[in-house]
Design goal:
This protein is an all-alpha fold. It has nine helices and no strands. Helix 3 packs parallel to helix 6 and helix 3 packs antiparallel against helix 8. The two termini are 35 Å apart.
Length: 208
């Protein structure tokens, strides 16, 4: 019923893609290092939820409609880019107060979760990735094409989530040792903020 092929290659490829450092990795690192493992876990789960939105959309054909409609693609792209810019400015300007004392402002797990979710769910480039990647491992004559796509997407997302949880755990062990170094933590958050600004501008300026 699942009608896929080369599943082992799909799993290996997915793991390598998930292990490639990027904005998601830094997002998890920044929260796990400043607020502990639970915050990193919330970031990881938020990111996987955002990816799941695109996986379901790709499976039922909504992503194809998004790509086919220049207007819809542009609207989602602009919204996603503006949200990334908002997060970037927020991380840069709040980095000083975030670590200025032991009573630094606590970012709720719910906020971290939804920020991670929206950074992926509002990025049409993620939709393009799943739309291009998943069908390569579905049999051309598959009777249940959507179900096969969904199955592969879930496998990819589960592996990615486990990797991201490992990142959160590692960040908690290694980077929390720097909590007494306000300078290092402040500039780490500024770096993540600058990266989000770059990704937001890049997404905004990218051609369809």
């Amino acid at each position: 019923m699942l009608e896929t092929h080369d599943l082992w290659l799909f799993v290996v490829s997915g793991l390598l893609l998930n292990m490639t450092p990027g904005a998601d990795t830094l997002y998890i690192f920044s929260h796990a290092s400043s607020q502990g493992f639970k915050s990193g876990l919330a970031a990881a789960l938020g990111i996987s939820t955002g990816c799941m939105v695109h996986i379901v959309a790709a499976s039922i054909g909504l992503s194809a409609l998004l790509v086919a409609s220049a207007t819809a693609f542009t609207v989602v792209k602009v919204i996603g880019a503006l949200y990334l810019l908002y997060l970037g400015f927020k991380m840069i300007f709040q980095s000083a107060s975030l670590v200025s004392s032991q009573r630094a402002r606590f970012v709720s797990f719910q906020t971290i979760f939804w920020q991670g979710c929206l950074t992926n769910a509002l990025n049409p480039k993620v939709a393009l990735f799943f739309l291009a990647f998943l069908p390569q491992f579905v049999d051309q004559q598959a009777q249940y094409h959507s179900l096969s796509m969904l199955f592969l997407g879930v496998v990819f997302n589960v592996n990615g989530t486990l990797w991201n949880i490992l990142i959160a755990w590692s960040a908690t062990l290694t980077l929390q040792k720097l909590t007494s170094d306000h300078f290092a933590i402040r500039w780490f958050h500024k770096t993540v903020g600058v990266l989000f600004l770059f990704l937001g501008l890049k997404l905004l300026l990218d051609e369809h």
